[in-house]
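REQUEST ID: PR-0412
SUBMITTED BY: lab tech R.K.
PRIORITY: routine
TASK: structure prediction, single protein chain
INPUT:
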Amino acid sequence: MNQEKELSRPYLPVAVPGLVFIIGSSVITGLFFYFEWFLLGVPALLLTFFICWFFRDPERFITKDEGAIVSPADGRVIVIEKVTSGEYVDTEALKVSIFMNIFNVHVNRVPSDGIVQEIKYTPGKFFNASFDKASEFNERSALTIKTKAGYTYKVVQIAGLIARRIVCKIEENTFLRRGDRYGMIRFGSRLDLYLPCDTKIIVEKGQKVKAGSSILGYFKEKEI
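STATUS: complete
OUTPUT:
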């Protein structure tokens, strides 16, 4: 498998959307220790360490394989099925769902190169993201992306029971590369991916995957 390291970027070990939480927690912790309120300071320090760890943003090696579709999220594959109807389905499609728990890296990445044709945000509820009804009723943000080969797929960020903030830093008509960071969901949730029905899926239900580095499958033109 051919892989390449991500192009250089201004490197931070944590995701930018998490900086406000890290800075806020650090300031409060510092004040506790400054005033010698150690009973509050020690738990606050531990919480600050946890927040820094939660918002970690490691570099990943991205495959160069033509037609490869990489995971948009860290987590566990909980759904692989054909669907014929739904909010994001005009014709039969393959749906792959990935559940992120609170211990996973929460930065989301682009599954395959393409142009963002549409961004659709839908307000909603906050059911447990592992439930099927989360795809239909929870708060969500969907990207519709068209590849150079003419395939169209959708990737949907879905808020969960604890996750109450979807971050999507993308605009329509933007070209995205496979593995690019495009957002995150704070504190656990789910990603749904809708692919053409002839996509070759190589992962299995229950399998753990990593955003950007795990290959979920290949578009039809890829011979394997």
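NOTES: Confidence is low (pLDDT under 50) at residues 1-10.
REVIEWED BY: pending
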